[in-house]
Amino acid sequence: MISKIKGKINGIAKDKVSIEVSGLTYDIMLPSSLLDDMRGKSNGAEVELYTIYYIEGSNIGNQFPRLVGFVDSVQREFFMILTGVSGLGIKKALRSLILPINVIARAIETENVKKLTELPGIGPRMAEKIIAELKGRVAKFALMLDDQPLAKPVKQPDFATDVMQVLKQLQYQPAQAKEMIERALASGKKFKSSEDLLDQIFKQQGMSA
């Protein structure tokens, strides 16, 4: 298991930083705010990241080793606990960290479903599941001093509101529609119209637009 990496920045992409260590280069996914902090450093700057190693599977049976990084062991520990919730994948969890860890932990410990649904990709059902599986396990994180969120909200285009209305007309609940839009926007694709965004949503739902 790779639990910590210390080396020099060798490049930064949309969702990951490359760290060179003794001639080897590791690609490490980071929450978006931490990635922005890395962009403020120059290539060759030395950094240390606490990492999680996991295997990502594809729908055709291939498996790929991945690394996720954080700047301290407390952030890593919270993320490991959070992603232990069944149905909450690594990438969705990374996108969800738009509130400070202590705020998320307090919401879990106080059973605040509404606060948890402010997180991208977290609807009421998933929020209730997070509370059911983690309440009593994250109290110490709620005591953390106030900090900055590890991720930034995905900026929604002006026509996202129109797409929300379309999905409501198609009988989706507001929380479902919100999650579908956020998931499509998180794909990293650029959308020029509501039709483009709907097309991506339907593709992700396993349908053809």
Structure explained in plain terms:
This protein has helices at 32-39, 73-82, 90-96, 101-109, 113-116, 124-134, 139-142, 160-169, 174-185, 194-204; strands at 4-12, 16-21, 24-29, 46-57, 63-70. It is an alpha+beta fold and 209 residues long. The protein has three domains: 4-70, OB fold (Dihydrolipoamide Acetyltransferase, E2P); 73-142, Orthogonal Bundle (DNA polymerase, domain 1), CATH 1.10.150; 160-204. The protein has a five-stranded antiparallel sheet. Helix 8 (160-169) crosses helix 9 (174-185) and helix 9 (174-185) crosses helix 10 (194-204).
Neighbour order of strands in the largest sheet: 3-2-1-4-5
Low-confidence stretches: none
User: SS-based structural class?
Assistant: alpha+beta
Indicate the proportion of strand residues. 15-25%
CATH class bucket of the largest domain: Mainly Alpha
Using the coordinates shown, work out and report the CATH topology of the largest domain.
Answer: DNA polymerase, domain 1
In percent, how helical is the residue content? Answer: 40-55%
Radius of gyration: 18 Å
Q: How many helices does DSSP assign?
A: 10
SSE string: EEEHEEHHHHHHHHH
**Terminal CA distance:** 42 Å
- Biggest pleated sheet: 5 strands, antiparallel
